[in-house]
Amino acid sequence: MSVLDEAPTSQSPLEPDQTKDTSPQRKPIKVRDFKPSDVLLLAVTAIAAYSIVWIIFDQLTLFSGEFGFVVTWIVVFLAMYWFVNLQIYGRHMAVDRLLGGIVTIGALCMILPLVLLIVYIFSKGLPLLSLNRFTQTQAGVGPLSPISAGGFLHAIVGTLEQVALAALMGIPIAVLTAIFLNEIGGRISSSVRIVVTAMSGTPAILAGVFIYSIWVLTVHDYSGFAASLALAILLLPTVTRGTEEVLRIVHNDLREASAALGAPDWRTVWSVVLPTARSGLVTSILLGVAVSIGETAPLIMTVFGAQVMNTNPFHNPQAALPLVVYQEIKLPQKSAVALGYTASLVLFILVFTIFVLARILGSTWLQNTLRGRGKGKGARLDGDVEEELFSVALAPAMSFGSGEADVDLGYHYRPDQEDPT
Amino acid sequence: MMTTSDVTTDARKVASSSAGNLGEQPITAGELNATGVCAWFSGRLVLEDVDLFMERHAVTALIGPSGCGKSTFLRILNRMHETINGAQLAGTVELNGEDIYSPNQRATWVRRHIGMVFQRPNPFPAMSIEQNVLAGLRFNRIKTSSKADLVEEALTKAGLWTEVKDRLSNMGGALSGGQQQRLCIARALAVRPSVLLMDEPCSALDPASTLRIEETIADIKEEVTVVIVTHNMQQANRVSDNCAFFLSENGKPGHIVEVGSTVKMFSAPNDPRTLDYVNGRFG
Amino acid sequence: MTITETEEHQPAEGGAAGPTPIKITVRRSRTDVVYRRIAWTAAASTFIILVLIGVFLYIRARPAFEYMGYWGFLKTQVWNVSGVHPSFGVGSALLGTIILAIISLIVAVPVSIACALFINEYAPRKILGFFPAKGLLTSMVDLMAAIPSVIYGLWGFFVLQNSMKGLSRWLSDYFGFIPGFKVNTPVYTSSLLIAGTLVGIMIMPIITALCREVFSLTPLGEREGAVALGASRARVIRDVVFPFSKGGMIGAIMLGLGRALGEAIAVSIIISLTFGPPNHLLQPGGNSIPALIADRFGSGGKLGAAGLLAAGLVLFFITLIVNLIAANIVRRQEKKRA
User: Fold this and answer.
1) Which pTM value belongs to this model?
2) Are A193 and A279 in contact (CB under 8 A)?
3) Which of A170, A238, A263, B46 could form a disulfide with B139 if both were Cys (CB 3.0 to 4.6 A apart)?
4) Which chains, if any, share at least 3 CB pairs under 8 A with chain B?
5) Candidate CATH numbers 3.40.50.300, 3.30.70.860, 1.20.1250.20, 3.30.470.20; the one for domain B32-278
6) Is A372 in the B-facing interface, judged by CB distances under 8 Å?
7) What are the C-alpha distances in Å from B83 to residues A216, B86, B195, B231?
């Protein structure tokens, strides 16, 4: 924290003024592990491998399909790459290069399905997207209807109602639980943590099964509300753990300062901790919502799906956007499949938008921008928080950020931080 | 309506109460008397039998090598010590004759009347400068007739007013280190405490800011008793009226070796260890 | 004024001789008490919810267990819930679930770890001179995890299936001697292999994200020590990163496994549900508990419903155990970091 603030110059008069560099030759050296010649080597090896495989495939026709072609190409390429590097650089370096190649291919294999998927969704869904999708329901659409007939207005309404109710029920409990775990603590803390972990690993379909057995069978009615209950169960552990994570990261100094001013516990949490953690909280909540919107499995046995509009979430089956996709794309009618494509495109855009929103709102960049000239000191949050938040939210059970909280009168001293003598 | 100070003690007559208008109450520096104070962390005794009288309208400095319990003792004075998991204490601490650890006493009340400034500046990042200064009043539900006047008064006392008067609505974190610390001082002063505890307030700051804060201490000591922990002997010499020299030898619990006026402590102390310390021979 | 909650705090310890600590009485304001009670209630309610779920599920599922017996329910491979002599069980669904999980792990683990290594160790600072590689890649991985499973299912059904037909045919032609790889009819869609691959793709981002996080927590001191001795990146990975991250990687993989075990939608879109021992991986057919529940939901009357709930209970136990073990491993890794 030792910032030179109002001092006019930051240099001692004995040091030469290094702020002006007058010599034109001063250019930083670029230290590169992968020289341009290596890039060439890589390219040449890749092309050579491709040619060889092409020959094998074309002439010998031992394998088939583009999938097999690519796989063979990769294998041959890696073998050649290893051999070439072995000759030039020796074993130690060759291993490194080979691993680099494998790892890069692995990353590409990871990104490839994503790209293909997005391209596919857009290419199939966009042409079939029309205004009536957003204004009509499936009422009156039958097997003989044209492709462009019908819409999913009822599904959009349904999803919005279900997710809203789920958020209303789940988020307050989740945030309060996180506050309890991190700020208050108590004998039930460890049990609650275990419960939250257990819940966060629960498959989505089981949430639907649970609510089916508790609620639907008891009241003999499918409803949007039942779906909300199931979604709340899925929402709860995600938001709880994300919130707990953010609260943990709020610097303890602030709680101390608040206590030293005479603030009671709840005041400290309400006026200091929560506002400081605000952007992280918003991110956590948005992520929970984003995942809820896309969940299909729990909807099957709670809200059941419908063809017509039902604006009452407490009574009778409703439609939902992911459910539309699930139910329509396996039907034989082209119009049904078309509806499925467009619904999935809309669903994707929705989830993507919320996802991006969560990322932007949570980023320290935005925090600093909104706070004016705060040079990062304003936020008191670690820069990597957003990454942890995302992995906490999206990974079912756990990330490496959570830990046990020391319990005392609502404040948290971690003895490893500083020796308070 | 529930107020935080609902215990009738004599101390309340001296310090301003949370009911009633802040601006009209006179501010009176308080006196602290610690007797037989001991402190444990998880069963380990770190402070043994500390007696110290901190007189009003004066600055008392707690000096000594690091790790001998000065900050622990300071935190006992405003009941912050008990917030640490595994921390225990013994002894009595009296503010103007009233035991602050009495079962009838609320810790929040004590902390409001005995303020604290910490080693690392910790303004609330989610609040503006103005809101930071007024935070203590909000937390204790203290009313005041003019917020703007109070903000100006507190910031002026802390030596920050001229620098921030045009940007009171900027965020509290967007200041330099020295400015942040002065903001924390203003924040602590805004609730008109009887005593202000300062835990090495300048150790993370540059010399220019340190000087400003020392000026502030000199300005406020008539209104607010100051107890300051410092590693910097020159600072103790400049700033304080009385000194208490803490020492812990060979892992034994910390204790006070000698107490006296600063002048005496730095020129002709009774104990040879004090002489060694103030002459820089160890620590 | 009413004296509000008084909390006894830090009871006095007596030493044999010497000072003894005092008891500190904590007095809270009413608002504080209310706040603590509300937060406690919220936390306790999560507990109650879980208990409620378990209890209700068991009550409703009991008729199935009573009819088939516990072991019988686990063993039976058919699903006849109506008729004169109903006989049903999760036998084939359980086996199918396990096979799917294995296939998905085989697909996901190498790619995920490779990708995590790439992001953390090998990624260049900027791609094409502008885009921050690490952040972009991490965002894409997170996006993958957020994509709804029904969209994966759609893509898998129309695209992945067609691409994998060739591979399936190749496998059955040249490796048909391996049990499970033979096909009776030359149809290669709707198979366990394809479903397993799709689920594998779906769990890749989870494993990658967690592995990446573990890798990034490798202590810098250890890394620098190895580099200073002249180790290449691969060496550092092998000798520093992997030993440190072992626990975390296993935890990540188990979490991915937990997710794979519970995947219902994608599997039910791809697979055409069959019963009986799953000895054909490459041809249409297969089963898994989540797919069974999703598919057979609504049919079978009371006994059928009870049977599906019972299947849900079985799945619940399996995923619970996997996740608790994973959480335990992760916690140990976390302790190592601290």
Assistant:
1) 0.81
2) no
3) A263
4) A, C
5) 3.40.50.300
6) yes
7) 48, 9, 20, 24
